[in-house]
Automatic annotation (TrEMBL):
GO molecular function list: catalytic activity; iron-sulfur cluster binding; metal ion binding
Xref: NCBIfam families: variant_rSAM
Transmembrane segments annotated in the record for this chain: none
InterPro entries from the UniProt entry: Aldolase_TIM, rSAM, rSAM_sf
Radical SAM core domain location: 152-292
Name of the protein this chain belongs to: Nitrogen fixation protein NifB
Length: 405
């Protein structure tokens, strides 16, 4: 292996370590940098869909994400108490820690369709947001039936986000037509390769009918039969309903178990524990879904940092053995959730976890298509590790091109 390639990997591992810190601790931003970036005007802004992922609520627009110099993507999680901050240096935005510049931060331009409206006047930016890797993310509502029973998941602030930001921030029930029209425009602009449809937990029959309507609307408005969609759903009591999602045109499915340890699951997710058949039925539904969608085409996410790492990895290994992709998100103690004010584990904890997950994925025979298609985003630490090891990040192609010249 050429020295330049070895050096590139070494620099990528260092950049990944910085990313882990920025995801775990969040990042502050100076007024000057925020004014220069002008999120919502010049650069892409956050869209409050499911959750408030910043460390505290705020007025005004915040950036959606930024890229580090070698291309790793960092979701922007504002935390005024963070050790890291974004500063303006001339016409550069940089990541600073204790007045030391660590890296330049590159913020994406605002997507063209964000300024457009659907036929009924809704802002397309609020219907579906654009991820860093050509992924179209739709949260059709912040309605979660667990709220009325006082059984929200303790880590979740879906209902709080709706109550705090409301319709003025685009938090409302999206119609199938709005989604179809917006996807058609995003597709026309050549911006999308994958669609993720999700929302709060609603009654099973209503959920099924809605997802079928959305798939039909996407196909009708865009003319795209296979839109590479992931249906993120609750475990249906009638498992045959999963066949209906596949028949409607969804290529993959997401059934998020959240925790592998049953005791922790029951305590943290009281609504899920009592409805939809509980933990055991959710697991049966995931296994059934693999039979419907195929090996590597079903994803189940875990909220990483609340249960022990050993337990979480046991779950991800079990799912991999069954053909399901287990993922782990860096837990943000969301404002408004019952766990607000708690702390996530150290960045090194997450890096170690991600390395183990990447190994499990490789041994299970998952392809990059599986990992891309079944997930709402590929900005996780484990996705980065996969691409660094496989040398498939764009920066490797740039290095090869430079060497050829």
């Amino acid at each position: 292996m050429p020295d330049t390639q070895i050096g590139l990997k070494d620099r990528l591992w260092k950049e990944l370590a910085l990313k882990a810190e920025l995801m775990t601790d969040g990042v502050d931003i100076t007024h000057e940098a925020l004014e220069y970036l002008a999120p919502g005007v010049r650069t892409q802004e956050q869209v409050h869909t499911l959750f408030e992922m910043d460390f505290e609520v705020h007025d005004g627009e915040m950036p959606a994400y930024f890229r580090l110099p070698l291309g790793l993507v960092v979701p922007f999680r504002w935390n005024r108490e963070s050790r890291h901050r974004i500063e303006l240096d001339g016409d550069r935005t940089i990541v600073v820690k204790r007045d030391e510049e660590l890296a330049e931060a590159h913020f994406p331009e605002r997507p063209g369709y964000y300024g457009l409206k659907t036929s009924d006047g809704a802002s397309m930016a609020t219907i579906g947001s654009l991820g860093s890797d050509r992924q179209f993310f739709v949260a059709y509502s912040n309605e979660c039936s667990y709220k009325d029973k006082g059984e929200d998941c303790l880590f979740c602030n879906i209902n709080f986000t709706k109550d705090t930001y409301g319709e003025k921030s685009g938090i409302f029930w999206k119609t199938a037509r709005q989604i179809g029209e917006t996807y058609a425009e995003v597709h026309r602009q050549g911006l999308v390769d994958h669609v993720n449809i999700t929302g709060g937990v609603i009654p099973e029959r209503r959920e099924l009918e809605y997802y079928l309507d959305v798939a039909e609307s996407i196909q009708r408005h865009s003319g795209v039969e296979d839109f590479n969609g992931t249906a993120v759903v609750a475990a249906p009591l009638d498992l045959r309903n999963l066949d209906r999602f596949r028949e409607a045109g969804y290529r993959t499915a997401g059934l998020n178990l959240e925790f592998w340890d049953k005791g922790i699951y029951n305590a943290i997710c009281p609504g899920k524990a009592r409805d939809s058949g509980g933990w055991d039925h959710w697991l049966r539904a995931i296994e059934y879904a693999v039979g419907v969608f195929g090996h590597g085409n079903v994803r189940s996410n875990f909220v990483a940092g609340i249960e022990p790492k050993k337990s979480l990895l046991t779950g991800i290994q079990y799912l991999a053995d069954k053909g399901a992709v287990g993922t782990a998100s860096v837990w943000c103690p969301n404002p408004g959730s019952d766990l607000e004010g708690h702390r996530a584990p150290e960045p090194g904890w997450y890096l170690d976890l991600a390395h183990h997950i990447a190994v499990i994925w490789k041994r299970a025979g998952f392809t990059w298509a599986n990992l891309y298609d079944s997930n709402a985003s590929v900005d996780s630490l484990q996705h980065d590790i996969w691409r660094i090891e496989a040398e498939t990040l764009p920066v490797f192609g740039e290095l090869a091109l430079s060497a050829a010249e």
